[in-house]
Amino acid sequence: MRTVTDKPAKGVTPEKIYHLLGSFEVNERFSVDRLSKQDASNISYITWPDKSPCLIGNLYMLDLLKRVGRGGRVGLSRRGDKGGSIGDYAAKVSQLLKRCYRDSIEPKDLTDAIFGDYVKEMANEKSSRNPAIEKKSGASARATGRAWLDFLTFVGIFYGNPNFVSENGVIRIKIETFAVKVRGGSLIWRSYKTHRSFTFARREHKRDPITNEDIEKLTTANRHSKSSAFVRERRACLLDLFEATGARRDEIQNVSTDDIIDALDHPEHKLTLITLKGGGEIKKREVPVPLMILRRIRTHIRKARAAIIAAHYKLGADHRQLFISERTGKALSGQTLTNEIGHLRKLAGISHQVCLHMYRHAFITKKILKLLNDNQIRNDDEFRKNLIDINTFIKEIQQETGQIDGSSVEHYINWAFRDLASYDETIKSVRHHQIREVYLRKRKELRDALLEGMPTEEYVALDRELDESFSQDLAVADRARSALHKS
What we know:
Helices cover 51% and strands 11% of the residues. By secondary structure, it is mainly alpha-helical. The chain has a three-stranded mixed sheet with strand order 5-6-7. A two-stranded antiparallel ribbon has the order 1-4. Strands 2-3 form a two-stranded antiparallel sheet. Helix 6 crosses helix 9.
């Protein structure tokens, strides 16, 4: 194993010390003169800051490749441009490894005191954007600390000291056990490792569902931005898809032009999404998308996007990813999608937090509102009394949203009850409500575009298409509602 001899200067390098491997396989087992291999594509590979391989870090990554994740699947997720759950562990553990490298300490030689100092140093790091506040929220610092404990537990086992991280070990921890009461009255017991240094009493990230007001502000800011016509149109399609599907960032990043065309051909205009949470098994789900949105995206594909692809690729060489760079024609990264909404937030003058994941919060909350209304449930008491089969209720939400852990739906139910009192009871289907919201917003955008100089002929054509799409979307919603009541 590598040994550090020269102690680098104080300070932790900001550079990443891990990257994702492409198509990759690892040896799994040898039996009957045959070597079996396991796919490990997109797994994280860790180095020390001097670029030499980090053996213990990569052995830990391989261990995560065999770990049972949520839903009972073997192998944590590696999907997305950040490497999924394994990539998240790599990002957190690399922060500990960089400190070990800086101080010439092997992970197996850490003491409880040094570990505690590292945790405090990590938690007190200042934001590069605003040096007056910490880089991490309390929740983020706790998550990082727990990842360190998990890694060091593996280190202890690897070096023959299974009690290295334990209540009486070198790294002294406590096991906290708590019960979560879910709707229906049952309890879910959970436990986790904690350390005396995990004292993070400060700001927490709270992401409520995005409001209709903020959606409109972002839309208006995009239309008035000084970006090119292509970028404005691409952003509009991006915001529409996040609102209509409630998908995760990397799930939207992976949407292809073929997916959009298939959704247009689907009788209920359902878009197929790859669910990126859930280990190595590829799971897909279908989410209905208003025809108004699908047609707009199809226009973007056939005109603006096609022109960019033609300028950068030979005929027939299109990679077919929906969201592409105007400059290179390559598919956009997930981080670029995040940057897009951050840019629009500044242009819109929104001072509070607005991020892509808040679209997902709003989508799931509205889905729960739909189920509550379909079952004529108006408060928490009626929920427990009338909706006996809560597992069926939660399973329907999971199928629509790709949630793996049913217990994670709980706080969305609380949000739904919070909003139920002000919800328009004359609208009996949230699907209808969502379609009307989209229609009214698109009509306002169209009217504003006309006032800003859109040619009358183009306005008339788009106006006719919008009304036609709205009528068809309502018809699809009516058929889906009728089918639900017959089942």
